[in-house]
Amino acid sequence: MRNAVISRDEILEASRLMLQEKGWSAIHMRSVAVRCGVSVGSLYNYFPSKTELVAATVESVWQELFHVPEDLTGEERFCKVIQWLHDSIQEGNRRYQGFLTLHAMGFTTGEGKVEGRRMMERVQGQLRESLCRMLREDDQVNQSVFDSRLTPEGFVELVFSMLITALLRGEEDCEPLLAVVRRVLY
């Protein structure tokens, strides 16, 4: 066991690696402490419970996967962001086997329900804000499609919901969604 101080980020990195290698069942206070080479008490300084460790690990995976690229340019920029988001979630599902499904199921009941939902809302809110910004910055979008009944925020919410639903159903391709978006926006 090492005497050095460990950071929250190092703990989360170890948890993500364990998640990749062995799945959700590997994430326990004791196993993460062993992986980090510290005492279990050191982990409790950062995470008062396994539930909080798992929630923070899930959030760190979401943040790792979803840094909306600022350099998306060219035609149909909003569609490019949707494609990028679809591909990122699929990559995350491959890297962290079944991450999206397990995440969606794991926080719907039990001890982690409140914290999990709060974390999910925070991360998804950041994604929605990025999507709204990209929608507004896409010069090709016909802004006249928006009114008091269909706002950019409402449109992003609809697109985001359809994207997550398609991914949960295992659809490998988001082209039907992109076709609808193109017909509405461009």
Q: Which helices and strands, and how do they pair?
A:
Elements: H1 8-22, H2 29-36, H3 40-44, H4 50-65, H5 77-95, H6 99-106, H7 113-137, H8 152-168, H9 175-185
Helix pairs in contact: 1-2, 1-4, 4-7, 5-7, 5-8, 7-8
How would you describe this structure to a colleague?
There is one protein chain. With 186 residues, this protein is mainly alpha-helical. It has 9 helices and no strands. α1 packs across α2 and α4 packs parallel to α7.
End-to-end separation: 59 Å
Count of DSSP H/I helices: 9
Mean pLDDT: 85
Shape: elongated
DSSP strand (E) fraction?
Answer: under 5%
Task: Briefly summarize what is shown.
The protein is mostly helical and 186 residues long.
What key attributes describe this structure?
0% strand; 186 residues; mainly alpha
